[in-house]
Amino acid sequence: MSALLQVEGLAKSYGGVHAVRGVSFALDAGTILALIGPNGAGKSTCFNMLNGQIRPNAGSIKLEGQEIVGLPPRAVWRRGVGRTFQITATFPSMTVRENVQVALLSFHHKLWAMVGYAGAAHRPEADRLLALVGMEAQAERPCGELAYGDLKRLELAIALANNPKLLLMDEPTAGMAPKERVDLMRLTAKIAREKGIGVLFTEHDMDVVFEHADAVMVLNRGELIATGTPEQVRRDPQVRAIYLGEGLLYDAKHREGSAA
Ligand SMILES: Nc1ncnc2c1ncn2[C@@H]1O[C@H](COP(=O)(O)OP(=O)(O)O)[C@@H](O)[C@H]1O
Ligand SMILES: [Mg+2]
């Protein structure tokens, strides 16, 4: 059986800057792959090519064997590529449930029904998705009053509304406290494994990466310099050279966390 996602020779330049060059990898259904690397390594550029936002200069992206390079973002989404955003994109005045209902309406080609409000549309399905992420008790609350961690869980429910085969998460836990990060990725990993969804994510917190990823790829200056199990990557001398400089791999202080 072929991989869920097969990427070959992906490249993107901006003027003279090779943001991404010659990136190749495969991702199987139900597995969790982390893409890590220093700031400016090309991670977001990779994600944006995978979801159709940016057209690569070269390379191939196959989803279940079918080429998706050149498709617009909405067509890529339709084929089963879900994503979460670094900045949450919910409607603050609508309730938690209504936000999920809107995503479901969009998936079921009924975006016109958004004019007005989501009403009773897809309510059981919305509640099922909210239960999946542990947000059912907050269904009636306006999104604008949610704590940041809850907003992130809601966002995960919204990303699951189109029944994705592949979930792309560019820094899903940015701005969260360390405990919340671990919880969100634990939840994501559980759902992904249960539903057979492939996940590609990037994350600065190495504890989160090493706990949840089945495999890790390291990007540096646009090129993949290491790929392997978390343990292999953690021991890789080149990776250690890059990350020890930033104090990310073994820094106990980082483990305590200073973010959020
Ligand atoms: N729209 C753009 N125009 C010019 N340069 C860009 C653009 N987007 C990204 N870059 C450059 O490409 C490189 C990779 O950026 P990015 O993919 O955002 O890295 P990361 O997400 O790993 O921090 C950086 O040098 C960045 O400055
Ligand atoms: Mg980025």
Would you kindly provide a written description of the structure presented here, covering whatever features stand out?
- This protein has 260 residues and is α/β, with parallel strands linked by helices.
- It folds into 2 domains: 1-80 and 164-229, P-loop containing nucleotide triphosphate hydrolases (Rossmann fold, 3-Layer(aba) Sandwich); 89-163, no CATH class.
- Helices cover 36% and strands 23% of the residues.
- It has helices spanning 43-50, 73-78, 96-107, 123-132, 148-159, 178-195, 206-212, 230-235, 237-246, 252-256, and strands spanning 5-14, 17-27, 32-36, 58-63, 66-67, 81-84, 166-170, 198-202, 215-220, 223-228.
- A 6-stranded mixed beta sheet has the order 6-7-8-3-9-10, sandwiched between helices.
- A hairpin with a 2-residue loop joins strand 1 and strand 2 (17-27).
- Helix 3 (96-107) crosses helix 4, helix 3 packs parallel to helix 5 and helix 6 runs parallel beside helix 7.
- Residues 250-260 have low confidence and may be disordered.
- The structure holds adenosine-5'-diphosphate (ADP) and magnesium ion.
- Adenosine-5'-diphosphate is lined by residues 14, 17, 19, 37, 39-45.
